[in-house]
Specification:
603 residues; alpha+beta; TATA-Binding Protein; nine-stranded mixed sheet; five-stranded antiparallel sheet; disordered N terminus
């Protein structure tokens, strides 16, 4: 139900209310700077008179003001990022720096030294206006356009979402607040019958620390591309240049409606499990007798235990960190993180569970643990999902990123599949899968070693809960057939004894050009190195196969980071001490070069 919002409500996002850690929110003072088109003079608008004790009033940070920005307020984790008035070019550059490939990322809260706030509610307000302009650019107006907005439990999430809702509404968009959500649920809200929003925005920074936040964007066609994000940020900068944030907030109007969509999304996952398992005795409770530990890392994934598994008969006792907590107090919510996986392994063993599932913050990635405590993430997760996919779609192509190991390619080939090893960046991997299907190359699985994985059958959506469901179905089908569990599906998969990754710094002002020079020379180095052979099919950097004797082959890959001033060196060896030998060979080459590369981490 839509509700009228008072002026005080409208200004919530400038005050940043909603953070549990902030005390005395009524004592917070919000100043917005309205820039007139006819005058550069700024007007300071005092929205609330401080209240509370004298000590409380003394603790309030007296803010500086700037065009279209917010001010500091009481509390350790307050927005306090005053900047001088900026030229349009500076403003444009500042917004452009928020782009992280196909989404937006930045620092949302103060509290970490050397990390100033870059995405406050004010930036979010104008980014939402930019998205509104993007989504209606081929329409006559925004009338009738609906956009859903979700968030993970980050401390800055409520304030930023309120700003997003305000920004959308200011452009005539019907903005709908989904509250706590997952990234896949946001996309599903654009295609689910009875909802079918024209777009969706998810406020999340995935596994990054508590002070970060960001935004992901969807339409019924899927996630936005890099060029779309660039358009949105340019439009946001233009809006910020024209108006102060108080321009819209001075109005008293109905801002938003709300919807509880997560139960709808959970119901679709339950139905998928029921159909997939097709239990002959209890179809409605196909997980009866299955014990699953869920580790949500205090992100948005706790619903998977209570709303998906338990209603289907599963025992989820022993699950941990299901309650949302934007401090992420227990471990980084990231299935690539060693501590997160180790804690899930310990929980599985302690509970005597059949399976463990670990999610990242916004549930677009997942990892698994089997009953023996075997960690199933990275290459091993790809192998498991490849086995599941190839059983359903024999001969299909599977697209991965560039850093997958040699054993994975052999595993896929042995099961009759084709491995297309592409490049880093989960959107690159997914887009390549879409492209191959459009060209007539059947491609049912696209997955990065980070755990971002999408399936053709699921709208090419990277959905950690969906992938976990596919694995649970395969496990239950194997159990019904009397076959081994997950390790049976992984039979024949092998990994090297050692693996390493080194991140080598490049000069920030010219890292693309300098990196290209290094890679060109590295190609010649590989060709000249005895026992090293260039990988014939390669789409990113240079990858070499390394003869380690007795039929064993290690490998290395040197590539340029997609976004950061870095060269990334990955390697794998099948012999003890092999990675040191590979590293020393490459290090010697770097020491003989004149390129501006910081290889100190290899020393």
């Amino acid at each position: 139900m839509a509700r009228a919002v008072s002026f005080t409500d409208c200004t919530t996002f400038l005050r940043g209310e909603g953070h549990d850690q902030l005390r005395n929110p009524t004592a917070a003072r919000c100043l917005a700077l309205q820039r007139s088109r006819r005058s550069a003079a700024a007007q300071v608008v005092a929205l609330k008179k401080p209240s509370g004790t004298g000590a409380e009033r003394a603790s309030i940070v007296k803010p500086k003001t700037r065009r279209g920005d917010i001010v500091a307020k009481a509390g350790r984790r307050a927005y306090s990022t005053p900047r001088p008035l900026e030229s349009y070019d500076d403003l444009l550059a500042r917004y452009a720096r928020l782009q992280n490939g196909s989404d937006i990322r930045g620092v949302a809260l103060d509290g970490v030294e050397g990390e100033p706030v870059t995405i406050s509610p004010a930036e979010a307000f104008f980014i939402a206006r930019g998205f509104a302009e993007w989504i209606v650019k081929d329409r006559e107006s925004g009338r009738g356009v609906k956009v859903s907005v979700g968030r993970d439990p980050r401390l800055s999430g409520k304030a930023i979402v309120t700003a997003i809702l305000a920004g959308l509404t200011s452009k005539g968009i019907t903005a709908v607040d989904m509250g706590l959500a997952t990234t896949p649920a946001c996309f599903m809200s654009t295609i689910s019958e009875g909802y079918e929003y024209d777009g969706s925005m998810m406020c999340t920074a995935s596994h990054l620390p508590w002070n970060r936040n960001g935004i992901k964007f969807f339409t019924p066609k899927g996630g936005l591309k890099k060029a779309d994000i660039a358009f949105i940020l340019q439009a946001a900068a233009t809006n910020a240049n024209q108006y102060g944030a108080s321009w819209f907030l001075m109005r008293n109007m109905s801002l938003r409606a709300s919807v509880d969509f997560l139960p709808v999304y959970a119901a679709s996952l339950r139905e998928l499990i029921q159909k997939g398992v097709n239990h002959p005795e209890h179809y409605g409770a196909p997980l009866k007798g299955l014990k699953v530990v869920v580790d949500a890392g205090n992100g948005s994934g706790g619903f998977f235990a209570s709303m998906v598994l338990e209603p289907l008969g599963a025992d989820t006792s022993g699950s941990q960190f299901l309650d949302p907590d934007g401090n992420f107090p227990n471990h980084v919510p990231n299935p690539e993180d060693a501590e997160a996986m180790a804690m899930t392994v310990a929980a599985v063993r302690s509970a005597g569970a059949d399976l463990g599932v670990v999610f990242d913050t916004d549930v677009d990635r997942s990892g698994m643990v089997d009953s023996s405590g075997l960690e199933i993430n990275k290459n091993r997760l790809i192998a498991l999902l490849a086995a599941v996919t190839l059983a359903e779609h024999p001969g299909t192509t599977i697209v991965t990123d560039s850093v997958t190991n040699a054993g994975l390619k052999e595993f896929i080939a042995a099961r009759g599949g084709k491995h297309f090893r592409y490049m880093r960046g989960y959107q690159n991997v997914i887009s390549k899968g879409v492209e191959l299907n459009e060209e007539g190359v059947e491609t049912h699985l696209m997955i990065e070693t980070s755990g971002h994985g999408a399936m053709k059958e699921n709208f090419y959506l990277d959905d950690g809960a969906y992938l976990a469901v596919k694995i649970i179905i395969a496990f239950m089908r194997a159990r019904l057939e009397g076959s081994p569990g997950l390790q049976g599906l992984l039979e024949g998969y092998s990994e090297g004894l050692e693996e390493r990754e080194y991140r080598l710094g490049l000069p920030r002002d010219c890292f693309k050009a300098e990196g290209a020079k290094v890679l060109a020379a590295f190609h010649d180095f590989i060709v000249a190195q005895p026992g090293w052979t260039l990988e014939e099919e390669n789409h990113e950097g240079w990858r070499a196969i390394i003869d380690e004797g007795e039929g064993r082959q290690g490998w290395l890959l040197l590539r340029q980071s997609l976004h950061d001033p870095l060269l990334v060196l990955n390697m794998e060896s099948y012999v003890e001490g092999g990675c040191d030998k590979i590293k020393d060979t490459v290090l010697k080459w770097f020491e003989e070069q004149v390129y501006d590369v910081d290889f100190s981490k290899m020393l």
